[in-house]
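DM from R.C. (forwarded with permission)

"hey, sorry to bug you on a friday — could you get me a structure for this? deadline for the figure draft is monday and I only need the backbone to look sensible"
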Amino acid sequence: RCAQAWAELQRAKSAGLVREVGVSNFRDADIRRIGAGAGAEPPAAVQNKFSPYHPGDVHNGPGDDYVKLVGKAGAALVGYCPLSAWPSALSAIKDPHIAEIAARVGRSPAQARAAAT
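My reply, with the result:
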């Protein structure tokens, strides 16, 4: 389904209906698949849930780096819910590790977390 959706988005761009197209919640395999097509143009952006406790696609394998994958595909990563506690019980802005990093760079925990995504 993702490949079909991407093909339709590409048609809309080719027809001049939109300037740029992006995707949301595509898995790492989906991003690889849409980038593998002959003459395929990468998405301008990939939007995904991204926080200290949820660093990108939930279906990544161990050690996979979603940020690098999106960058390699030629897209910008747009994170949403960067301050969400899910699936952790601790909110990112109350996490002592985030607070320590924020203090070190002269920012609030929310600013430090948002800048990292």
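R.C.: lifesaver. The radius of gyration is 16 Å.
me: no worries. The mean pLDDT is 78.
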